[in-house]
Design goal:
Blueprint lengths: L1 E5 L2 H10 L4 E4 L5 E3 L3 H11 L5 E8 L2 H13 L3
Antiparallel strand pairs: 1-4, 2-3, 2-4
Helix pairs in contact: 1-3
Length: 79
């Protein structure tokens, strides 16, 4: 699933933290990075601090309820 226009990265990671299963960020090379890992979250935050918002991310969620949670966040922009 593609998540677009993330304006509040902290709020986005709160949504990720609420997910029950794995949530992975996929790179353009096909690598999958576990976003439930705090270390990964810190690295991701450091890399995107130069921008005011994230334009687009490709995510894979392992649980249907997590997909719904992420879609709700994308539609409403909040938890």
């Amino acid at each position: 699933m593609k998540i677009t226009n993330i304006s509040d990265i902290n709020e986005f990671f709160k949504v990720i933290d609420q997910c029950k299963g794995r949530v992975e960020l996929t790179s353009t090379e096909g690598d999958r990075i576990n976003l439930k890992s705090r270390l990964t979250q810190f690295v991701a935050m450091a890399q995107i601090m130069d921008t005011t918002y994230v334009k687009e991310l490709e995510l894979v969620a392992s649980e249907p309820e997590d997909v719904k949670r992420l879609l709700d966040y994308m539609m409403k922009g909040k938890i």
